Prior knowledge:
By secondary structure, the chain is α+β, with helices and mostly antiparallel strands. It is 43% helix and 16% strand. The protein has one domain (2-157): 2-Layer Sandwich (Alpha-Beta Plaits), CATH 3.30.70. It has five helices and four strands, in the order αβαββααβα. Helix 2 (28-45) runs antiparallel to helix 3. It is globular and about 45 Å long. The model is unreliable at 1-6 (pLDDT under 50).
Amino acid sequence: xxxxxxxxxxxxxxxxxxxxxxxxxxxxxxxxxxxxxxxxxxxxxxxxxxxxxxxxxxxxxxxxxxxxxxxxxxxxxxxxxxxxxxxxxxxxxxxxxxxxxxxxxxxxxxxxxxxxxxxxxxxxxxxxxxxxxxxxxxxxxxxxxxxxxxxxxxxxxxxxxxxxxxxxxxxxxxxxxxxxx
Length: 181
């Protein structure tokens, strides 16, 4: 039983990458869809987010599951968000961005899935973080990712990150305390 309890409470870091490194999250409508999808996963699927950032070509996230499993929640999010993004791209107003984006996603994404074209790479970088120093280092790496990519000069200036006090998921995040998770 102790092993099962530990597994439910462990923190996972995951990097969800867009297929072919496509900078998909440059439009506010698509970023908003991702934020809403993460919020829905928190509310309805039990996702607990400790740190996150939505970058142009990926989402970095540290979290766990209040109920169910973290992997099931992430798979559900990937299916929902793929469908939502493709719908926004197909139904949105025509643009130069869309003219090359949809064919590229369809070429590189898995189109044989029940959800349609998957926008996410099948190789997620996922690892479990146990030690407090690993948790702290992972949190800092997530927060500083926009600075490292040269998007902003300070992590708190990037809106779609847990480092920004006015981020779209404010109030949906869980704080890590000294007593653990």
